[in-house]
Amino acid sequence: MSGSDSTRSPSGGGRAFSVQPVASSGSPPAAAAAASTKADDLKPLPNLPHYTVTGASQADNRLRQFAHNLFMFRRKSADGLENDSVPMDGAGRAAGNADTGAAAATSRRRLAVSTKSWRDMKAKSTRRYKRLVFKNGECNISHYNIKKRKRRFLADIFTTLVDIKWRYALLLFTVGFIASWLFFSLFWLLICFSHGDLDEKKPKNFVPCVENVNGFTDALLFSIETQHTIGYGFRYPSDRCPEAVLMVMVQSCFGVIIQALMTGLVFAKLSRPKKRAETLMFSKNAVICKRDGQMVLLFRVGDMRKSQLLEAHVRGILIKKRITREGEVLPLEQFDIDLGYGEGYDRLFLVWPIIVEHKITKDSPFWEISSGDLLSEQFELIVILEGIIESTGMTTQARSSYLPSEIRWGHRFERLITYQKDNGEYQINYEKFHATREIPRFPRCSAKDLADLGEENFPYQGMIDDDQYSLASRTVTSASNLHSMILPKQQSTRDQESAPLHQRKSAGGASTSGAGAHSDFACPISLA
After folding, report:
1. Considering 455, 484, 504, which residue would you say is the last residue of a domain?
2. What is the C-alpha end-to-end distance of the chain, expressed in Å?
3. Would you report the helix, strand and coil content of the chain in percent, each value rounded to 5?
4. Which range marks the domain in which residue 215 is found?
5. How far apart are CA 210 and CA 225, in angstroms?
6. CATH number of the structural domain spanning residue 212
7. CB neighbours of 82 closer than 8 A, spacing ≥ 6?
8. 164: Cβ contacts below 8 Å, ≥ 6 apart
9. Where in this chain does the entry annotate a coiled-coil region (predicted)?
């Protein structure tokens, strides 16, 4: 290349920057000066502008910055550049020093490796996992090869009818009434035929069983009128035919029974407590953070109705494969998740949305799981909320589940409740029901490793004011995080590795890389 290449950010924003090729030793100073650009336009990779988009997610901005860094690395490698900080001025003298260039090149290589590792773990975590319980509470389970299945379902016919879908229930409702009308119309037609009501020549002073029934259509209309006690007055039975009187009594009783069954079926389907679960909400994601110095797993539940759910309580179950000592594979082993049963925290006063807490202790299945392990784990956390409906007194149950990809490490839930001074009410903003915010510099190691390190090695991350750190006002700058955290942390790590052991132990609490007091253990910190 004989000239400089000007490149603009992939997103279209930011200022242009230039890439200057290295002048060979045999090139005259004038040529090198002509090929160079102004010092203001020459910016090495660590000082590139922030290519972020306000309102975009952190992952999008970070991927945008990664793509831009890799693009610049490939372009500079094609031009024969050895590092990011060797632009030549007009006199052919390096503007930077070799140490800075080597550090930038090392950080770039580490960034490329971490990008590849992050993508591999992300692809592994997003692979399809067969969910057992859907978000709406339905179970993804089918039963087959059951002997005498139909007979068993018919033995409990009412529960079977209540559980079937509405379209089949309405079809059964319609077919049941039409079949009863046709069935009794045939009996009425048979009675009239046997009595001679359908004969063309009738004796004098002949009294029919049913007046004005001369065919099947008339018999069908009379059957409908009898069963539903309509009584138009044109067709009616006479007292000269005792079989007709008996048939009126039978059809009237049968009509009352079938109408009561169909009405009860429809009412039972409408008043099922399962429908009450439609107004109970679970957060789309669960989060892992710290509360009072202890790692916890949190998810949010809420009730949209003003009528309370009495005796509400919640419980959690972890479904995961387990292999016994004898080699037996248990594909769907259930592990109980303690949601505060001993302290009574599992019993909820569900008037406003509540964040349910699971303390990650030694007895917790999440004790040895870190943020990296969470991307490769395969399990399903099922949460169940039960309570008594205040208006009907029936017990209802709402279910939901969380996969490992739906658990956000180092996040907190947004605040929902605000006090309105004008009317003196507490207002709940359900727009932020599923919203979470990332905790800056949150440790990514497991709760076990964090306990082994000690609390003094990780400063307490206090609550951040919602007005200062809300999703609406926060702008994610991943490039700034990369420049201000990755490079200083790597330089600090190298300084500590070169220092004596007693100095590393004394500086463990202030280490930004999370090395801590143990020289052979490192707990990484979230970049956000």
Report:
1. 455
2. 39
3. 40, 20, 45
4. 163-271
5. 13
6. 1.10.287.70
7. 22, 101, 105
8. 172
9. none
